[in-house]
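Page 42, continued from yesterday. The earlier attempt failed because a stray header line got pasted into the input along with the sequence. Redoing it now with the clean sequence only.
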Amino acid sequence: MERRRLAEARSVGLIRRWRRWREDRTVARHAITDALWHHTLASFPFLRHAQDTEGLRRMTSLFLASKEFHGVGGLQIDDATALAIAAQACLPVLHLGLTLYGASRTIVLHPTEVLAPRQDLDDNGLVHEWHEELAGEVQQGGPVMLAWSAVEASRDQASDAPDASVYNVVIHEFVHLIDLANGEADGVPPLPDALAARLWHDQLCRAWDRFGDRTAHREPSCIDAYGNQALEEFFAVASEAYFVAPSALRDEDPQLFAQLDDYFRPSASR
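This time it went through. Structure tokens are written below.
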């Protein structure tokens, strides 16, 4: 048995070294220049909240190597544009791994918000049609759609301002992608087991109720009011606040901050 365990450990070690070697080659092929990286950090200062910015830089290279960017409506995507989106997209999975983003490989970038046709059948059998303005949208296994004007709106955003709600469409949509990784967008990301999922759901619902009370009383919040729409939207906008204005979120709702911190930084020392 001991010999078998040693053989299995050596095998696991070899696989890990092989994967690291492959990653190193990919990072080298998609290296981000110092000038471009520092420009991105200066343009989106909240990226420095990652603390491990070199780890974020490495993952961003791996992200860029695995994704395809398509500009529509005449929008030209250069290295700075792709890097700005990739670095922000990597924040939620920095300690979790890119595999959470599943099979989604394509990022479609529009110059401005998109008018998407919507249709709904009411209880009386009547069909209602309208157009919804979208700054971003994701589909499980499908493309991620973003409006560049919305991405730029988060440039130089003042972080940790308690009276200002956070807006970050990239983090928002990629957190939805994490939410979808276990089959549906319900505000519950992939967790180890059913008990953990139930505890997460109950805790997030309590935070959602506290947030609803604050907005109902017109109290300031670093979480965008759009979070009142549904639990999955609350998870996404609360995550925006967690990554962009962590101190403000911690001051506003320490329990919610701790819940998100435990999920997004599972191996971080406390």
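Notes: The radius of gyration is 20 Å.
Reminder to self: strip header lines before submitting.
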